[in-house]
Amino acid sequence: MQGIINGCIRKDRSSQYLLYKEFYSYCMAICRRYAINDFDAADVLNNGFLKVFTHIEKYDPSRPFKSWIGRIMSNTAIDHYRTSLKFSDHEDVAEHQEIGNGAAVYDQLAYKDLLQLIQGLSPAYRTVFNLYAIDGYAHEEIAELLNISVGTSKSNLFKARQKLQEKLNMSDRGVEIPAKLNIDTDGKR
């Protein structure tokens, strides 16, 4: 892998192609979680890879490359929504109580189904939900990334989980959304 990275640093097209091919699925899975559709996800993915190739010399080889590229894709998706959409679906609130903890029952839900449900959320809810429940960010970090208050982050998460729960109940699955989701960004649990 280090040879491919070194080739990318030298702007070698074949190394860039190999890196793209190696990490396409992983990065697209991240982008799909934040995007409303595959076209939007592809746009974020392309911008993310442009950033990867532009800044690859900043990669620290002592750290996992997969984490580095995943962070770039997440940040690119956040930047995409920060610039193209206004977060109008939020309100400041101090605290909301969490809905259920049905992590065991959650396993009934296929990744594809969950992705479709998440994509159906508003951009504000979807972004906060992904950052908190899947990527493991704290509300303070989310607030800073999205330029919103901590209360807004908590409110958006609560409402996102509520909307997902409503959709799951409507589909007669009887599954509860746990506080944190254990999903590998490749789409595996």
Automatic annotation (TrEMBL):
<keyword id="KW-0804">Transcription</keyword>
<dbReference type="Pfam" id="PF04542">
    <property type="entry name" value="Sigma70_r2"/>
</dbReference>
<dbReference type="InterPro" id="IPR036388">
    <property type="entry name" value="WH-like_DNA-bd_sf"/>
</dbReference>
<protein>
    <submittedName>
        <fullName>RNA polymerase sigma-70 factor (ECF subfamily)</fullName>
    </submittedName>
</protein>
<feature type="domain" description="RNA polymerase sigma factor 70 region 4 type 2">
    <location>
        <begin position="113"/>
        <end position="164"/>
    </location>
</feature>
<dbReference type="InterPro" id="IPR014284">
    <property type="entry name" value="RNA_pol_sigma-70_dom"/>
</dbReference>
<dbReference type="InterPro" id="IPR013324">
    <property type="entry name" value="RNA_pol_sigma_r3/r4-like"/>
</dbReference>
<dbReference type="InterPro" id="IPR013249">
    <property type="entry name" value="RNA_pol_sigma70_r4_t2"/>
</dbReference>
<feature type="domain" description="RNA polymerase sigma-70 region 2">
    <location>
        <begin position="19"/>
        <end position="83"/>
    </location>
</feature>
<comment type="similarity">
    <text>Belongs to the sigma-70 factor family. ECF subfamily.</text>
</comment>
<dbReference type="GO" id="GO:0016987">
    <property type="term" value="F:sigma factor activity"/>
</dbReference>
<dbReference type="InterPro" id="IPR039425">
    <property type="entry name" value="RNA_pol_sigma-70-like"/>
</dbReference>
<dbReference type="InterPro" id="IPR007627">
    <property type="entry name" value="RNA_pol_sigma70_r2"/>
</dbReference>
<keyword id="KW-0731">Sigma factor</keyword>
<dbReference type="Pfam" id="PF08281">
    <property type="entry name" value="Sigma70_r4_2"/>
</dbReference>
<dbReference type="GO" id="GO:0006352">
    <property type="term" value="P:DNA-templated transcription initiation"/>
</dbReference>
<keyword id="KW-0805">Transcription regulation</keyword>
<dbReference type="InterPro" id="IPR013325">
    <property type="entry name" value="RNA_pol_sigma_r2"/>
</dbReference>
<dbReference type="GO" id="GO:0003677">
    <property type="term" value="F:DNA binding"/>
</dbReference>
